[in-house]
Amino acid sequence: MKKKITIKDILVLQIVIAIYTLSTVMAKQASGQPLFSVGFFGFYGAELLILGIYALLWQQMIKKFELSVAYTNRAMALLWSLIWAVVIFKDNITVKNVIGVALVIAGTIIVNGGRKEEDLTSEN
C-alpha cells in the first residue's frame, strides 16, 4: 500500500512533469537550428539530459504514487506545454486550448480527490 498523498507530493509530481515538458522545448529549439550545427547538438543534448533527469525522478514518483494516479497527473503536461508555448515562444492561446486544458485539470483533480476518499474508507 502506498503512503497517503499530500498536496506537497502532488506539487513535486507536477514539478517532475514540468521538467519532462521542457524536453519538448529543447526539441523545438533544436529544430530551429541548422542540421548538425553546434546549436542543434547543444539543444538535442539538453533534451536528452532533461529526459534522463526526468526518467530518474519519474522512478521516484511511481514509488510514491499509485501508478494510475501518477499517469493521470502526466496529462497535466498539456498545461505545462501551453505555459511554455506562451512564455517562451509567445504563442497565442485560443478558447479551445483553455477549454481542453480545463477539462484535463478537472479530470486530474477528480482522480486525485477520489484517492483521498478511497484512503479514508479503507482505513475504517
Describe this structure in words.
With 124 residues, the chain is mainly α. It starts with 6 loop residues before the first helix and ends with a helix. The C terminus is likely disordered.
Gist?
This protein has 124 residues and is mostly helical. The chain has helices at residues 7-31, 38-64, 67-74, 77-87, 95-123. Helix content is 81%, strand content 0%.
Secondary-structure blueprint:
Elements: H1 7-31, H2 38-64, H3 67-74, H4 77-87, H5 95-123
Helix pairs in contact: 1-2, 1-4
What is the approximate shape? Answer: flat
Q: Span from first to last CA?
A: 15 Å
| Portion in strands | under 5%
Give the overall pLDDT as a whole number: 87
InterPro entries: EmrE-like
Organism: Eisenbergiella tayi
Keywords: Membrane, Transmembrane, Transmembrane helix
Protein name: Transporter
Keywords, separated by commas or semicolons:
5 helices; mainly alpha; 124 residues
